[in-house]
Design brief:
- By secondary structure, the chain is an alpha+beta fold.
- 36% of the residues lie in helices and 30% in strands.
- The protein contains 9 helices and 23 strands.
- The protein has a 4-stranded antiparallel β-sheet, with no helix packed on it.
- A hairpin with a 2-residue loop joins strand 2 (128-131) and strand 3 (134-138).
- Helix 5 (64-75) packs antiparallel against helix 6 (79-92).
C-alpha cells in the first residue's frame, strides 16, 4: 500500500486539474485528509484511515481515492462494501497501471468467492425492488447484486399489481436468478345468478328465466358474469312468475353467488311484502316462514300468524285472515319508551283533581249554605274540574294514540301487481 500512495496522489493532481484549480481550499483539505489516512493505514488503524479517505473523497471525488477506500474496507472485513468499491474503481478509472489492475482483479476474485451473485428480473417495468430492507431501485435493474451467504427476501411492488415476494437461500461463491411475477390486481368480481321457484326451490325451466343487470340487457339464467366493484341492481323475470329485484354488492376478485326465488303468479293467492325500510333488515314472518321485505310470498286463503320486525321499530305480531290478492300494509312507530304509564299518570291526576274539587265544593256548601258566595265558588270549582279533566284525559288520549301500532290488510284486484303504496312505512319519531 505505501508504494501506491504517491501514485494515487499524483493521479489525482494529473487527472483533475479543473477541479483542483477551482477548489483550492477543498484541495488542501482533501490532501491533508488523504495524507492522514495513509499514516493511519500504515499504522494499522483501518477505521481511522477509512474515515480520512472518505472525507478526502467527499471533498475531491476522484475515482483514484476509491482504491485506498477499498483496501481499508477489505482489511476491516467489510466484504460487500470492499467489493462494490473496487468494482466502481475499475469502472470509473480510465488509466490503471497493469500491476495495480492485476492486484485489484485478484482482490475482486477473492471477495466474490465469499459472497453470492444475484440477478433480479421483475415481470413488469417500473417495479420497485427491495432486497431485505434495502431498496435497489426500479426495474429493469442493472445488477448483478452481491449478497452475503444465507437467507434473503426480495420484494417487488407496483401500483395496480399484487406484491411479489421471493425468499431464497444462497451459498458463498454461487449465483442465483430471482424472477418476480407481477400479477395485475383484479378490477372486476365474478357474479353467478341462479333463478328458482321460491315455492319448490327447483330451478325455473331453462330458457324461461331472464336476468337484467342495472336496468340493461336480458341475460339467460343461470348467469355468470364479471361486474365492476360496487352495488348493482339485479332483476329476475320468468313467464308465469312474479318479478324479483335485489341489490348485490360486488367486490373485486371475489365471487358473489345470488339465488333469486321467484313466486308463481297465481291470481288470488299472492301476498306482497314490501317496505321502504332497509329490506336486508326488515323481516316478515308468516306461519314461521321468514321472508325478506322485498320478496313475494304465496299463501293460501285463510287465517295466518304474521309478525313484522325491523330494527328501530316496534315489532308487531298477530293473526290475519287473507283472501284474494291481499296486500300486507303495515305502519310501525319508531321505538320510544312506553308512554302508557305517563298517560295513566295524567288520568289519575285528573281523577284526583275532580275528587278534590268536588270535596271542596261540598265543604263550602256546608259552611256557606245557600249564599251567593258559595254558588260562585261552586261554579269556579266546577270549571276547574272540567278543565283539569279535559287537559288530563286529552294528554293521556293523545299520548296513547301516538303510542299505538297500526296494522292494516288492504284488498287488491285479482291478478294485478300490488300498488307501491302498500309498503311498510316508518312514521316520525315520537317527541
Amino acid at each position: 500500500m505505501p508504494k501506491l500512495v504517491a501514485f494515487f496522489v499524483a493521479a489525482v493532481v494529473l487527472f483533475s486539474p479543473p477541479l483542483l484549480a477551482e477548489e483550492g481550499e477543498a484541495k488542501e483539505q482533501a490532501s491533508k485528509a488523504f495524507e492522514e489516512g495513509v499514516y493511519l493505514y500504515d499504522g494499522g488503524f483501518f477505521d481511522g484511515a477509512l474515515e480520512k479517505f472518505e472525507k478526502a473523497y467527499s471533498l475531491m471525488p476522484h475515482p483514484s481515492i476509491l482504491y485506498n477506500i477499498g483496501w481499508c474496507q477489505s482489511q476491516l472485513g467489510r466484504t460487500l462494501s470492499a467489493l462494490a468499491t473496487f468494482l466502481e474503481y475499475l469502472e470509473r478509472t480510465e488509466k490503471i497501471p497493469e500491476e495495480v489492475r492485476a492486484e485489484v482483479d485478484a482482490e475482486v476474485a477473492r471477495l466474490e468467492k465469499l459472497v453470492c451473485k444475484l440477478t433480479i428480473v421483475a415481470g413488469a417495468d417500473k417495479t420497485t425492488v427491495t432486497l431485505g430492507s434495502t431498496q435497489l431501485g426500479e426495474s429493469p435493474l442493472a445488477g448483478p447484486f452481491h449478497v452475503l451467504p444465507g437467507e434473503h427476501t426480495v420484494t417487488g411492488t407496483k401500483a395496480g399489481h399484487e406484491t411479489a415476494t421471493k425468499s431464497f437461500a444462497c451459498a458463498a461463491g454461487t449465483s442465483s436468478a430471482i424472477v418476480l411475477d407481477m400479477v395485475l390486481l383484479p378490477t372486476t368480481g365474478l357474479v353467478t345468478i341462479d333463478v328458482q321457484d321460491s315455492g319448490s326451490e327447483s330451478t325455473v325451466p331453462m330458457g324461461a328465466a331472464k336476468v337484467e343487470i342495472d336496468g340493461t340487457g336480458q341475460h339467460q339464467a343461470p348467469l355468470e358474469i364479471e361486474l365492476p366493484p360496487g352495488e348493482h341492481t339485479v332483476t329476475a323475470t320468468a313467464p308465469g312468475f312474479l318479478p324479483l329485484t335485489r341489490k348485490i354488492l360486488v367486490q373485486a376478485g371475489q365471487h358473489t353467488h345470488e339465488t333469486m326465488g321467484l313466486a308463481p303468479e297465481i291470481p288470488g293467492a299472492n301476498l306482497e311484502i314490501a317496505t321502504n325500510t332497509d329490506p336486508s333488515e326488515t323481516v316478515v314472518t308468516i306461519d314461521g316462514r321468514e321472508k325478506a321485505a322485498d320478496a313475494w310470498l304465496q299463501v293460501d286463503p285463510g287465517e295466518h300468524d304474521v309478525a313484522v320486525d325491523a330494527p328501530g321499530y316496534l315489532s308487531w305480531k298477530g293473526k290475519l285472515k287473507f283472501g284474494d290478492s291481499n296486500v300486507l300494509a303495515v305502519k310501525l312507530l319508531t321505538e320510544k319508551p312506553d308512554r302508557r304509564a305517563i298517560s295513566i299518570a295524567f288520568a289519575v291526576i285528573g281523577i284526583i283533581a275532580a275528587v278534590g274539587t268536588t270535596a271542596t265544593a261540598v265543604a263550602m256548601g256546608v259552611t256557606f249554605g245557600s249564599s251567593t258566595k258559595w254558588h260562585d265558588l261552586s261554579a269556579a270549582g266546577t270549571a276547574v274540574l272540567g278543565t283539569v279533566m279535559l287537559v288530563s284525559f286529552g294528554i293521556a288520549g293523545g299520548i296513547s294514540k301516538r303510542s299505538s301500532v297500526k296494522l292494516t290488510v288492504s284488498m287488491g284486484p285479482l291478478g294485478l301487481a300490488i300498488p307501491s303504496m302498500a309498503r311498510l312505512v316508518p312514521v316520525r319519531p315520537l317527541m
